[in-house]
Write a structure and sequence with these properties.
The protein is α/β, with parallel strands linked by helices. The chain is built from 7 helices and 5 strands, in the order E-H-E-H-E-H-E-H-E-H-H-H. This is Response regulator.
Amino acid sequence: MVQKAKILLVDDRPENLLALEAILSALDQTLVRASSGEEALKALLTDDFAVILLDVQMPGMDGFETAAHIKRRERTRDIPIIFLTAINHGPHHTFRGYAAGAVDYISKPFDPWVLRAKVSVFVELYMKNCQLREQASLLRLQLEGGRPSADEARESAGLLAELSARLAAVEEQAEALSKQLDETADAAAVATAAHLERKLTGLRRALDALEPGAGAATG
């Protein structure tokens, strides 16, 4: 059974959190509330999240400062952050959001369909990453457990092929997304494409290392 992904919603206004929950409930994932930057950082200490929706304007620790703390932590630095703001101070304000590590920057009021679609991309990537890592870990344990029998070898080869095919499907989706984003020439598009590329490159490298004979050249 596939575990649901967790999405962190950070906003100091309860009505905004309620609205986000209404918009994202259709994704059927676990939505976690945080009413401040401090509360968000506490949640990130114990749970893994697929994506963070972070309000820019909050009393005390604002969204930019919260994002800076998130990006400094080894555990959380790769979690995608989507900034939400009720005002638009122009390109400089938007650039500050990207500089703080956001993959997207959305002004309120936003289109619910667009927001849901953006979040779903990162949820899908997170779920696939989790599945691939889990299967790759199980396969590595199996391979390290001793010389496999003929049946085990065939099973391992089949599992490797399945993993490679799943990753190839994600790579194909990411490539198509990158082409669409390139046409917009938007800073958010560049950041999103770069994030996907780093994730997929790491997964492909890890999977290639599991291929039979991958370490033969050094052994």
